[in-house]
Write a structure and sequence with these properties.
The protein is mainly beta and 803 residues long. 4% of the residues lie in helices and 52% in strands. It has four helices and 47 strands. The strands form eleven sheets. The chain has a 22-stranded antiparallel beta barrel.
């Protein structure tokens, strides 16, 4: 593993070799050899600043740029920002974005997210809330590294800050339509302008996005589609020159036949020679498993994912002399339910695999921002947050392929002396959970200019957190007399528990201006991700442990070091940014799949994985080569490794290890195989070492008033593993490296107010998957995978109108 010292030396050398330049001309002016790049304004430090002046590794993109690339989903951001990735799942409860190889992709409702999402200053409680479509956006800022000082709840790995378009002082309209193959249809429109002179302005927008599914059943049903619509409105009241109020509200619905995995490899006697093992292949005769497989069996269960997201906020801004006082009050709701037939087959192994969430959250933030241009600039604030998440889960089926096939043939099964399972009898359980969270925090961050060039940065945040869990599990009607055959995870269980914690996070650093348009910085920060509970379905509390001791997940503490260079060169025609970092996570919170030693069934659990280190270098550059040609390049090299993780779950192939004492092998001669191993020293999962993107745009005047353009974007991702395997077992969960090429050509009319284009996404039709894992209900060697709609070529046309 490369040392951080080497990384810092390389990045420092780049910074030294990239000298600062004099102030460049205003945005959009023409230079002798190219156009001056537009100034990028961000609010990552709660005040408007030029991107190159911000001592944070941040990538900013505008809504116009996303529309030009025909990107409408939050997951599309991974093709814009190297180092940003997706942790996929069969439900939005378990999916989420990842930054620098770190993310929270867990089913547990009681675990905070590592990558936070903030919309117009309001933090979202669950990672899945941030995976909605992104429409009517002013800009999106991706902040890399711990971001707990200024953005409400702490985000231990990074933050996605989404800023929507505000009402305009003059009447304006926008409309966007894109249509293409695979049923692609994206529609959005907005109207904005004054409502009562110049004192009240308003805006309303709406959208609908549709896309055909990429997975089909063997009897022709289409799954994993996209169907979402929503509305967003805002009113701005300028009550006086010093006081204004912004009221925002939004509502969206998603109703998809989603989400299902496909078999990548089906187990057989050659992969699992153990006698008596039933293989899922016997129930999926028409499925051709493989990396390009997009078919499942004639599933007898239903697949759906329904989400309603809504919220409202009131932001009041009061200028008190040169100071600014801001109050942000928000209430949000997120209601979600889903089901998937987990066996993918016409046999009822687990047809009813239902989950639902009803989340309500309230937040209040107050900030005081000091005047700009003073020797000391600072932001002080207080934050309150509370949420209540009610979860409801039902699982009904036969839970074992051997039971399902025997019962389907009309056979009764003797479970124990005097206990016979009739052919029509199902196993089942219902779980109800309530998670209550409350956070109270005070925070501040300041920059002290010691000289005209040297500044000192200091920030701190004190947080008090309380988390409560109410857990109840019962058998479904008629199943209690038989559930014992599936072990303690199906036994009735009820408990209440809670925890509280306090934390002091900090940030310290220095920034040195090489010139008016270039600077270097160095920062150190300690973040925080609060405690939580493992409220997953398979809880079995061992004898001698309390519910609190067994389900509690300790806080995750990151300590990060970062150095960077930002500058504009060549009279404003080249922007260059380089950052090097190292982050050490203590008690990293991880979702693992554990194997029950008695039933051999897999079960999810949340564990503190010990220590995780991630380090690397991030680079991005944009250049106006000529008046007509703009080029961009960005790359992220990341090394993410478990320094200590002694409880990693053995994969299903571990059951075949026969060497006594080997990882996942028998603990003793003739004994059972271990169900966990020491993964210390292994690379983190779903954390590619290298990701990069290249993009370019060429413009040329076609006729008077018509500007033609062609643009392309290429994204490349290194090979990645999705599962932890001991060294004595070859890891089959590898997605090879791949590249995605997107391109478009078109024309702008009426000074850019009308833009028409022909576009192609994944032009080379590159196939890839977003996760690989042990295939449920199959033997050793069976693998499942998630296939994304992006893993196919998509061609369409778009029209964008703005007046």
């Amino acid at each position: 593993m490369k040392s951080l010292l080497n990384i810092l030396m390389v990045s420092s050398a780049i910074a030294v070799c990239a000298p600062g330049v004099h102030a460049h001309a205003q945005s959009g002016e023409q230079g002798e050899e190219g156009r001056v790049l537009d100034r990028v304004v961000v609010t990552s430090q709660k005040r408007e600043e030029n991107l190159i002046d911000v001592p944070v590794s941040v990538v900013a993109t505008t809504g116009d740029e996303l529309e030009a690339r025909n990107f409408v989903s939050a997951t599309d951001l991974q093709y814009v920002v190297p180092g940003l990735g997706l942790g996929d799942s069969n439900t939005p409860r378990g999916a989420g974005l990842r930054i620098r190889g770190i993310g929270t992709n867990v089913f547990a409702d009681g675990i905070e997210q590592s990558v936070g999402t903030v919309v117009d200053g309001v933090p979202l409680a669950r990672a899945g809330q941030g995976l909605a479509d992104i429409v009517d956006i002013e800009r999106i800022e991706v902040l890399r590294g711990p971001q707990g000082m200024l953005f409400g709840r702490n985000a231990s790995a990074g933050l996605i800050s989404i800023v929507t378009r505000a009402p305009t002082d003059e009447f304006s309209t926008r409309a966007y339509i894109a249509a293409g193959d695979n049923g692609l249809l994206n529609l959005s429109a907005a109207v904005s302008g004054p409502l009562a002179g110049d004192r009240v302005t308003g805006k309303i927008s709406g959208y609908q996005n549709k896309l055909d599914g990429i997975v089909s059943t063997s009897d022709g049903r289409e799954l994993n589609n996209r169907d979402e619509f929503g509305f967003r409105g805002a009113l701005r009241f300028e009550l006086s020159p010093e006081f204004d109020v912004m009221v925002r509200a939004d509502y969206s619905e998603r109703d998809n036949a989603c989400c299902v995995w496909t078999p990548r490899q089906l187990a057989s006697a050659s992969t699992d020679p153990r006698p008596g093992i039933r293989f899922l292949s016997s129930a999926l005769p028409l499925v051709d498993a493989g990396p390009e497989n997009r078919t499942i069996g004639e599933a007898s269960g239903d697949y759906f994912n329904k989400v309603i997201s809504q919220g409202a906020s009131v932001e009041a801004n009061w200028d008190i002399g040169d100071f600014a006082l801001t109050s942000l009050t928000a209430l949000r709701g997120w209601r979600q339910k889903d089901n998937n037939d987990a066996d993918l087959s016409p046999i009822n192994v687990l047809d009813n695999n239902f989950g639902a969430n009803d989340l309500e959250q309230f937040s209040q933030e107050i900030r005081l921002t000091s005047p700009e241009g003073e020797r000391l600039e600072y932001v002080l604030g207080a934050f309150f947050y509370e949420s209540k998440n009610e979860g409801s889960f039902d699982q009904v089926g036969r839970f074992a392929l051997s039971f399902a096939q025997a019962q389907a043939a009309g056979a009764s099964i003797t479970l124990a002396p005097g206990v016979v399972l009739p052919p029509s009898q199902l196993f089942g359980r219902s779980i109800e959970t309530v998670i209550d969270v409350q956070d109270v925090a005070v925070f501040g961050q300041g920059t002290l200019s010691l000289t005209d060039k040297l500044s000192f940065i200091l920030g701190a945040r004190y947080t008090e957190t309380e988390v409560g869990l109410d857990f109840q599990r019962i058998g479904t009607p008629g199943a209690n007399a038989f559930n014992f055959a599936l072990g303690g995870a199906f036994a009735p269980l009820a408990f209440e528990t809670d925890t509280s914690d306090t934390n002091f996070s900090w940030r310290i650093g220095a920034q040195y201006a090489l010139s008016d348009n270039a600077n270097v910085y160095a920062t150190a920060a300690r973040g925080y991700k609060g405690p939580g509970f493992n409220n997953l379905l398979d809880i079995v509390i061992p004898a001698g442990l309390t519910a609190n001791a067994f389900t509690l997940v300790r806080p995750e503490i990151p300590t990060s070091f970062e150095v960077g260079y930002k500058g504009e060169l060549l009279d404003g025609r080249l922007r260059l940014e380089v950052a090097a970092y190292q982050t050490n996570f203590e008690d990293f919170q991880a979702q693992v799949v554990e194997r029950d030693a008695v039933t051999n069934l897999n079960r999810f659990a949340i564990r503190n994985a010990g220590e995780l280190k991630t380090q690397g270098v991030e680079f991005q550059a944009r250049a106006s080569v000529t008046d007509n040609l703009t080029l961009g390049a960005a790359a992220a090299w990341n090394d993410s490794e478990f320094e200590s993780f002694k409880g990693a779950a053995c994969p299903r192939l571990g059951a075949l290890v026969s060497t006594v004492g080997a990882p996942c092998g028998p603990v003793s001669a003739g004994g059972a195989n271990a169900i966990s191993f020491d993964a210390s020293g292994q690379s983190n999962t779903n954390a590619p070492e290298l990701t990069m993107s290249l993009d370019g745009r060429y413009e040329a005047s076609l006729t008077a008033g018509i500007l033609g353009f062609v643009q392309a974007n290429y994204f490349w991702r290194d090979d990645v593993t999705f599962g932890l395997y001991p060294e004595n077992i070859p890891n089959p969960t590898v997605q090879p490296s791949y590249g995605i090429l997107n391109a478009s050509l078109g024309a702008e009319f009426d000074d850019g107010r009308i833009v028409a284009s022909l576009f192609a996404r994944n032009l080379t039709d590159e196939n890839f998957v977003t996760s690989i894992f042990d295939l449920p209900f199959d033997g050793a060697g069976g693998l499942g995978q998630y296939t994304t709609p992006d893993a196919r070529r998509m061609v369409g046309v778009s029209l964008n109108i703005a007046y």
